[in-house]
Design a protein that fits this description.
Elements lengths: L9 H9 L7 H11 L4 E4 L6 H13 L12 E4 L3 H15 L8 E4 L5 H6 L6 E4 L1 H9 L10 E4 L2 H6 L3 H9 L6 E6 L4 H10 L4 E4 L19 H14 L5 E5 L2 H13 L4 E4 L5 H13 L4 E5 L4
Parallel strand pairs: 1-6, 1-7, 2-4, 2-5, 3-4, 5-6, 8-10, 9-10
Helix pairs in contact: 2-3, 3-4, 6-8
The structure holds adenosine monophosphate.
Length: about 300
């Protein structure tokens, strides 16, 4: 079934075509019509499944039929676990909203940067993408009001719980009106995610996208079983031999992320670490350079709790 049969208007279909999305991904096929019907939804899907466009498109469709926001009462709230995801989701909203005839104000807020500029931007915001802690800061300074939210999205719920945001999330839920649409996305269905599901969702549609159905193409997975002291030399050898141009290295700690960067650097390979002990500005620039191909290697702590 093509995107044009899913109930999306011309302004959205045009951007989808510009992005060369030939067909809806499975999660989009199910999620878009269900969300447009006003249903609550539980999506068990990983990054790579296309889940972001799966909720961004119907939310923008519904928003076109609502009055623009003029005050601090936001309509759509998207909770995400990290600054990086907040920026990314904000960008997907901006992209797909670009041809909508009425102005849609979208803002992404997260901690680690000054709160004042974010406070000033809240008036007239239709869609707010936020990490939980910073959202509560903005609520407590009256910069934003949540009592008229009509659509709540919780993205990467399992990660949010792993990062210890449970209390903040519960505080946020108590500030929302009873009548609203709830969309919950998680890569896994842990007991804690089930608790949130029970708390938030009323008679939800449930979509489960298995790993094989996700469209992460062109990925070849290879494992090397070697001693610790040979890991660094092997990494450098592979980067050079295979002429790898964009390499993301996950390591077990912040210290290791810095060590790997230093070793690569000494060996003439351009690398930077992405971790929480760096300033937000440093992280943003490193990520931007990595995405654009200016920076060859980025190292990051892989956190499982
Ligand atoms: P997500 O799982 O939302 O992070 O999306 C993963 C990637 O898939 C993003 O780079 C999207 O731009 C891309 N994508 C999403 N939907 C489609 C589609 N229907 N066709 C092609 N690419 C898509």
């Amino acid at each position: 079934m093509p995107f044009s049969s899913l109930g999306l208007s011309k302004a959205l279909i045009e951007v989808i075509a510009e992005q060369n999305y030939a067909q809806p991904y499975p999660i989009q096929l199910e999620a878009i019509p269900a969300i447009l019907k006003g249903k609550d939804l539980l999506g068990i899907a990983r990054t790579g499944s296309g889940k972001t466009a799966g909720y961004v498109l119907p939310i923008l469709e519904m928003l076109q039929h609502q009055e623009p926001t003029k005050n601090r009462y936001i309509k759509t709230l998207v909770l995400v676990p990290s600054r990086e995801l907040a920026v990314q989701v904000g960008e997907v909203f901006q992209l797909f909203a670009s041809r909508i005839p009425r102005k849609v104000k979208i803002r992404a807020v997260f901690g680690g940067v000054s709160v004042n500029p974010q406070m000033m931007q809240m008036i007239g915001t239709d869609i707010l993408v936020a990490t939980p802690g910073r959202l509560l800061d903005l609520v407590s300074s009256n910069a934003v009001k949540l009592s008229k939210v009509n659509t709540l999205v919780v993205d990467e719920a399992d990660k949010m719980l792993n990062l210890g945001f449970k209390e903040e999330m519960n505080s946020i839920f108590t500030l929302l009106p009873a009548e609203r649409q709830n969309l919950l996305f998680s890569a896994t269905l842990s007991n804690e995610v089930i608790t949130i599901k029970e708390l938030l969702l009323k008679d939800p549609g449930i979509i489960r996208i298995d790993e094989e159905d996700t469209y992460i193409e062109h990925i070849r997975q290879v494992g090397y079983y070697i001693e610790n002291e040979r890991k660094g030399p092997l990494l450098r050898y592979l980067i050079k031999k295979e002429n790898m141009q964009q390499v993301l290295v996950f390591v077990s700690s912040i210290k290791r992320a810095d060590n790997v960067v230093n070793k690569l650097y000494i060996n003439g390979i351009d690398a930077e670490a992405l971790h929480s002990e760096r300033s937000q500005g440093g992280r943003t620039t490193a990520l931007k350079n990595f995405k654009s191909g200016k920076l060859r290697v980025s190292t990051s702590k892989f956190s499982i709790r």
